[in-house]
Amino acid sequence: MKAFHTFDANLRRNLLTLFTAGLLFWSSTAMFLPTLPVYMESIGSSKQEIGIVMGGFAIGLLLFRPILGRLADQYGRKLLLLIGTTVAVLAPFGYLAFTSIPMLMLVRIFHGISVAAFTTGYSALVADLAPIAIRGEIISYMSLTAPLGLAIGPALGGYLEAETGYSSLFLLSAAFASIGLLSAAQVINPPVQKYEQNTGSNQKFWQILISPRVRVPALVMLLVGVSVGAVHVFVSLFIKSTQVDFNAGLFFTIAAIASFSFRLFTGKASDRFGRGLFITFGISAYTLACLILWQANSTYAFILAALAEGCGGGTVMSMITTLMTDRSLPHERGRMFALCIAGFDLGLAIAAPLLGFVAEKFGYQTMFGYSAGLTFLGLLIFLTLSSKNLSQSLRFALGRTEDTYSLNNGE
């Protein structure tokens, strides 16, 4: 992390404050990963009902992220940080107050707005602040808030669920988000760069989505989102159903540690070898995780699957963010991030109800087999369509050439 020492004091302080807000936000949100599906099962919900409610989170993401992306470009990134942390403060009280499926669905949709707002604002602000020459390194370091939060949150959530019950869990989640809100309020937002007239840059959302800069990464994120959704929603219940003596919270903690470890060097390496090679590796790791879960019946298998899942998370998300930064200008960056990550959101939204149905009819292992097939399809798409033709796509995806759609020289 030597790069941070080259920054002036104000920039370094701003990044550290932003990092603190991100860590608290993700810790708050991640407490529900291993606990909410089990909580719903305890109140009599079926697998498909659990999938529908959990999918509500992604619906909130999907519906609001395009609007929030435009707000980020027009009014600044800090506004989205404040919206995201405020919703994260309020949502746990909804889980505490309601137990019916329809109301839990509404609370889950509302909670999804928090991640839509915070991640869009956070990613765009980090991209604005990161120098081009070390962009991948800075984005990867700053993205460590997610795996760290995903290590802290599930472990705390699982402990509180077992020792003190769900009320303490919901209240602590709200407390973490409240401190995150105070931290976000201290972040200094750079001046908003307005749209330039007559440059063709003031495009509508769907014009951006179908552009060659965005469409393939967004499609890949859609397929990856289905896989991640299947793991996040159903792995706790799957582990419980196998009767293997393995704490589901540890699955997420191991995955987070692996994700953290990979992010420490992949960002810096991507500044040298390109983003494509690491995106290819990450999608392959997600595929491997689902293949292992397809056949998992032991503690060893769940640990291996968690490690593979973490390797995927430690590369795909930060590298796609960096790729979108390379391919966008500052005044369109919020919308670019929002649309690309909306592919991931849609995958999450589809995963829970659709794969919940598959799990209900054919079992969890078959469901993870389907997930592996979808991520492998995403890998094939990235290998063959990520650049202007097949040859360039393969070379970019394997780290042998630069990104054709990069706008670094124009920024």
Secondary structure tally: strands? 0
CATH architecture: Up-down Bundle
Largest sheet: none
What is the fold-level CATH name, i.e. the topology? Growth Hormone, Chain: A
Quaternary organisation of the protein chains? single chain
Distance between the termini: 25 Å
Nearest-angstrom radius of gyration?
20 Å
What does this structure look like?
- With 411 residues, this protein is mainly α.
- The protein has one domain (10-188, 205-410): MFS general substrate transporter like domains (Growth Hormone, Chain: A, Up-down Bundle), CATH 1.20.1250.
- Helices cover 78% and strands 0% of the residues.
- The protein has helices spanning 9-30, 36-42, 47-75, 77-97, 101-129, 135-142, 145-163, 166-185, 205-209, 215-242, 248-273, 276-294, 299-326, 333-362, 364-385, 390-397.
- Helix 1 (9-30) packs antiparallel against helix 8 (166-185) and helix 5 runs antiparallel to helix 14.
- The longest helix is centred in the C-terminal third of the chain and has 30 residues, at 333-362.
- The radius of gyration is 20 Å and the shape is globular.
- The two termini are 25 Å apart.
- The model is unreliable at 196-201 (pLDDT under 50).
